[in-house]
């Protein structure tokens, strides 16, 4: 579904992502974790083409990213950034219409099929009752769901999320992640997301990709990757790892080294 081969990205004279390779299978949820400044968000931008790669290749299915038009990429991928903004007079329903733009010629109006898909996206995210609300007036969790509805209206095969729980309280963090997992399960939607919380990555991911200084340090299931030794090496903290009945690891941070 998504394959990165030796992707490297440079900002001016600084190498941010180095020889980065991994593969995401159809229907998987993969979380990218790592310290601040390790290149996590840059990797997502490289996948979408928002930032050009210095070297390497990005494959979406059998297609190489550089062979696709912006419209084609938008039909395959949808990405939500850490902070999303909209005009102060834009309603939730108006926001969701933008998800249909990659499927329309600039001169064509929305048709019945577009409205059906928009309604489906609003209902699936639970935002149908907020359709007339202004986006800026929503709470953080509601706003994140409104943007997810827009992304779903795009009908992508792959959803990229850059720290989707940023600025949310604990309850809303779990609410958004539960919704993402539901979308993955019910739609077989492939999800790649950047997370900071190791326990969230453990709970909601099929695989975890650990990034350190722009390199893949480890990639595999949460049980394989989230070990005391690796967390100590990458984050510089001591932890206690709890595993019950073959469940995913539960990480308790003890102290900084």
TrEMBL record:
Domain ABC transporter residues, every copy: 2-238
SMART domains: AAA (SM00382)
Primary site of residence: membrane
Record's keyword terms, sorted: ATP-binding, Cell membrane, Ion transport, Iron, Iron transport, Membrane, Nucleotide-binding, Transport
GO cellular component: plasma membrane
Cellular compartments annotated: Cell membrane
Top-rank taxon, per record: Bacteria
PROSITE patterns, per database record: ABC_TRANSPORTER_1, ABC_TRANSPORTER_2
InterPro entries per UniProt: AAA+_ATPase (IPR003593), ABC_transporter-like_ATP-bd (IPR003439), ABC_transporter-like_CS (IPR017871), P-loop_NTPase (IPR027417), Siderophore_ABC-ATPase (IPR051535)
One GO term (biological process): iron ion transport
Bilayer topology term: Peripheral membrane protein
GO terms of molecular function: ATP binding; ATP hydrolysis activity
Pfam families: ABC_tran
Protein name: Iron ABC transporter ATP-binding protein
Organism whose genome encodes this protein: Paenibacillus solani
């Amino acid at each position: 579904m998504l394959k990165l081969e030796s992707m490297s990205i440079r900002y001016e004279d600084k190498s941010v992502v180095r020889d980065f390779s991994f593969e995401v299978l159809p229907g998987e949820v993969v979380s990218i974790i790592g310290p601040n400044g390790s290149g996590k968000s840059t990797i997502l931008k490289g996948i979408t083409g928002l930032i050009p790669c210095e070297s390497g290749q990005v494959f979406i299915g059998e297609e190489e990213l550089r062979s696709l038009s912006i419209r084609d990429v938008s039909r395959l991928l949808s990405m939500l950034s850490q902070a999303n903004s909209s005009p102060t007079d834009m309603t939730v329903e108006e926001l969701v219409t933008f998800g249909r733009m990659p499927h329309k010629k600039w001169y064509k109006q929305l048709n019945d099929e577009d409205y059906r898909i928009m309604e489906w996206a609003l209902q699936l995210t639970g935002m149908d009752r907020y359709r007339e609300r202004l986006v800026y007036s929503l709470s953080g969790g509601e706003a994140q769901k409104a943007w997810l509805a827009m992304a779903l209206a795009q009908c992508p095969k792959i959803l990229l999320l850059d720290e989707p729980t940023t600025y949310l309280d604990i309850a809303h963090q779990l609410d958004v992640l539960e919704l993402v997992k539901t979308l993955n399960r019910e739609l077989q939607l492939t999800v790649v997301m950047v997370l900071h919380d190791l326990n969230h990555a453990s709970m909601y991911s099929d695989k975890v990709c650990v990034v350190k200084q722009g390199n893949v340090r480890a990639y595999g299931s949460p049980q394989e990757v989230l070990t005391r030794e690796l967390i100590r090496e990458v984050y510089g903290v001591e932890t206690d790892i709890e595993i019950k009945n073959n469940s995913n690891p539960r990480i308790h941070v003890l102290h900084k080294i």
